[in-house]
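Thread amino acids onto this structure.
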């Protein structure tokens, strides 16, 4: 695969445009840094001001979940269904959602050293007790971003419960013994306010969540070129094939 994420200290370290504000918070706070996983197309950043908008954003996700305009009619709600999906984040028309959307785009622009990226698909995922996500990649996305809004309840008996993991032979960290042979997943530390950016083709999933409070993440599929058609068409087609 081609190298999308620029090396640390390169042009990506500089904002592509002067940071703007939403909710009186900067889209890209002064001094905001990110870390890249060595040998992989994965970068992580954490927004220290997340508590300022966390409640408003959680309320926005839960409100949008009850709005049929943002439902995914083809998404199957079952424990393996990667949570309940709430789509089209920018169309929720909520300042807190607009802020994290702008931050996701800025994170991608900086990480990729691109003046422009396109939001091909955006959504929130609400996990309930027992929900999990089997390994998959993101169709069409050059890069994807996951934002941890609400991690939910910890499981004292299983530290990996509800955790996002990457298990892909193209990620060197997962193959410490033999190149191309995955023997350990990469599990980023995702405290609330954390954004993880990764190559859309990387195989990833979410371990089963065991808590009672909702576990909520937000996601973006981003492309370098604007893509025609419905980003979910492939899912509709597969669902049609039964
Ligand atoms: Fe995913």
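Threaded sequence (242 positions):
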């Amino acid at each position: 695969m081609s190298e999308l994420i620029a090396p640390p200290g390169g042009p990506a370290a500089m904002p592509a445009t002067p940071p703007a504000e939403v909710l009186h918070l900067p889209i890209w706070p002064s001094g905001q840094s990110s870390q890249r996983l060595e040998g992989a197309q994965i970068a992580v950043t954490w927004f220290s001001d997340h508590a300022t908008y966390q409640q408003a954003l959680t309320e926005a996700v839960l409100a949008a979940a009850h709005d049929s305009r943002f439902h995914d009619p083809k998404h199957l709600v079952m424990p393996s269904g990667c949570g309940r999906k709430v789509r089209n984040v920018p169309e929720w028309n909520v300042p807190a959602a607009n802020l994290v959307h702008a931050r996701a785009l800025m994170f991608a622009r900086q990480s990729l050293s691109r003046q422009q990226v396109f939001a091909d698909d955006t959504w929130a995922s609400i996990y309930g007790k027992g929900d999990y996500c089997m390994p998959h990649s993101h169709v069409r996305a050059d890069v994807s971003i996951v934002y941890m809004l609400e991690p939910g309840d910890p499981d004292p008996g299983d530290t990996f419960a509800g955790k996002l993991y990457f298990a892909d032979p193209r990620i060197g960290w997962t193959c410490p013994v033999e190149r191309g042979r995955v023997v350990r997943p990469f599990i980023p530390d995702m405290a609330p306010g954390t954004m993880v950016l990764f190559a859309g083709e990387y195989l990833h999933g979410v371990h089963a969540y065991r808590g009672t409070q909702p576990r909520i993440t937000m996601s973006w599929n981003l492309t370098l070129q604007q893509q025609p058609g419905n980003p979910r068409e492939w899912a509709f087609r597969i669902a049609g094939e039964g």
